[in-house]
Amino acid sequence: MSSAVLRRFSYRYPRAGGWALDHVDLDLNPGLTLITGDSGSGKSSLLRVLNGLVPHFHGGVVSGEARVAGSDVLRTSTRDLARTVGFLFQDAEMHSVYATVERDIAFGLENFGMARTEMIARVESAMDQMQITVLRDRAIATLSGGERQRVALAGLLAMRPSMLVLDEPLAQLDTETAEPLVDIVGRMAAGGTTVVVAEHRLDGLMPRADRVLGIDGGRIRAAEMASRWGSDDGGGRRSASRAHSASSNGDSAWSLIGATVGVGSHPVLHSVDIAAPRGSVTVLMGPNGSGKTTLLRTLAGLLPPLAGSVRRTAGRIAYLPQNPSALLHRPTVRSEVELTLRRAGDAEPADAILGELGLVDVAGSYPRDLSTGQRQRAAIAAVLAGAPNLALLDEPTRGMDGAAREALLRLVRRIVEHSGTVVLATHDADLATAAGDRILRLEHGTVRDTHLASAVEPARMQR
After folding, report:
1. Listing from the earlier edge strand, what are the strands of the sheet with 219-222?
2. Within 10 A of 2 (CB to CB), how many other CB atoms are there?
3. Which residues have CB under 8 Å from 326's CB, separation 6+?
4. Residue 184: partners with Cβ closer than 8 Å, 6 or more residues away
5. CA angle centred on 142, ends 115 and 304, rounded to 5°
6. Is 371 helix (H, G, I), strand (E, B) or coil?
7. How far apart are CA 145 and CA 360, in angstroms?
8. What is the pLDDT, as a whole number, of residue 282?
9. For the chain, how big is the Rg over CA atoms in Å?
10. pLDDT surpasses 50 at 228
11. CA max distance for the chain
12. Which domains does the chain show, CATH number per domain?
């Protein structure tokens, strides 16, 4: 018997003009099923049928049949489905309930009324599997996006569901921390768990997959494995010779001088001396929790340095956080971009950047109704519209397909051509190679200026 069955299942979100899912016929069995497709193709909508969020939470129009573990999804509450289906959202922030890691992992087990001794054993086991035992007493608010993702997955593993559904689980993980997650997924699938994963980063998962399905326009199709986007689209990578140290650069776009940065009184990076010239692209790489986001927020002026000083170029600073929803509050995608252009005093039409990012068709949509990949592109359009003097981008390719990544690369190059400066944090080795003038490697509280090849090659070897 299949773990999940959909028969001629169609679904349309409220206020949406078209079908998010269109006559889907699908059987999901034990093992690993990968779901691929462009942003907005219907991947997340399909996954949300499996735990009942579609249609119970989102509402909308539905037809056809969907059954999970023998239960009719349309007549079974999401609370009951949660006992069978462990669901990992794209946005790790959506999982957090309690203030500390250990309590947050135990939340689902507490809801099930599990005995305390069994609960403690499961939480310990889940933390060990996800290699986050050292985080047990940390406040959720102090974690990086990748660390939050691992905590969220640990909470699911503790519940030991018969079906595990993961929406972009690798999006915020560095290659080192992605590897144990891929191993866990492979072992669970081999052990008889039905595992369904929607993902753009397929390299590590493909050898373990029992089936790969594509989705396009809400319809299931045969998957086409697009090659990873290249490091050179004809424009070539700029020379790393433009990198400068703080002591040698007198015309820097930004600099940190003897800076210790952190959150509250907790230092993350110590005695940082680094600078970048105008018209350069600096890439921040390093493990989850190494301080990439903290450094970007310090450069943006959102966090004061705990010691030392930070200097920035005059002019507009554009900051893209890891969670795009934190930026998007206007009624439509177009109005988000228009607000930026109006504040910047820029006459550029909003549809220029919307067209570059493939968002014209959803320009009139409420941003939070979009898929994660579309929402990421909307946030990028909202912060990069016009000509920012300094653009700070935190995991900008999160949830984005290859075409959107190429569009982002073109935007980065356009900023540089207008003498703007870019700093981006990423785990994406290909983006680092294609966009960066130089890479700063963050690890163990230090910042190390390194050559492009030596910085990205280990990441590729781990895939």
Report:
1. 85-88, 163-167, 194-198, 31-36, 211-216, 219-222
2. 15
3. none
4. 129, 130, 153, 157
5. 165
6. coil
7. 29
8. 96
9. 22
10. no
11. 69
12. 4-222 (3.40.50.300), 240-461 (3.40.50.300)
As a whole number of angstroms, the distance between CA 130 and CA 98 comes to 19
Q: How far apart are CA 179 and CA 185, in angstroms?
A: 10
Specify the higher pLDDT residue, 329 or 234.
329
Residue 129 CA to residue 125 CA, distance in Å, equals 6
Tell me the residue type at 293.
T
Cα–chain-centroid distance for residue 388?
A: 23
Query: What integer best gives the mean pLDDT of the chain?
Result: 87
* Sequential DSSP letters for 108-128: HHHHTT--HHHHHHHHHHHHH
Q: Strand, helix or coil at 425?
A: strand
- Residue 291 to residue 246: CA distance in whole angstroms: 19
Q: Are 319 and 296 in contact (CB under 8 A)?
A: yes
- Tokens read off for 134: 């050292």
Can you spell out the DSSP letters for 283-332?
Answer: EEE-STTSSHHHHHHHHHTSS--SEEEEEE-SS-EEEE-S-GGGT--SSS
- Alpha carbons 415 and 357: distance in angstroms, whole number: 15
With 0-12 CB in 10 A as exposed, 13-18 as middle and 19+ as buried, what is 250? exposed
3-state SS of the chain: helix, strand, coil percent to 5? 40, 25, 35
Nearest to 96 by CA among 135, 129, 128: 135
Q: Which two tokens stand for residue 229?
A: 């986007």
CA-CA distance, 52 to 33, in Å (whole number)?
A: 19
Whether this model's pTM surpasses 0.85: no
Percent of the chain with pLDDT over 70: 90
Among residues 151, 118, 146, the alpha carbon closest in space to that of 136 is found at 151
- In 3D space, the residue among 173, 165, 123 whose CA is nearest the CA of residue 148 turns out to be 173
Give a three-class secondary structure readout of 22-47: EEEEEEECCEEEEEECCCCCCHHHHH
Which residue in the block uniquely carries the two structure tokens 């059954």? 67
* Cβ(280)–Cβ(427) below 8 Å: no
Return the structure tokens found at 306. 């705990």
Residue 387's pLDDT is 85
Phi (first) and psi of residue 142, to 5 degrees? -95, 0
Write out the two tokens for 173.
Answer: 């993980």
**Alpha-carbon distances, residue 220 vs 55, 85, 203, 301 (angstroms):** 19, 21, 21, 46
* pLDDT over 50 at 112, yes or no: yes
Please give the pLDDT value at position 246.
Answer: 36
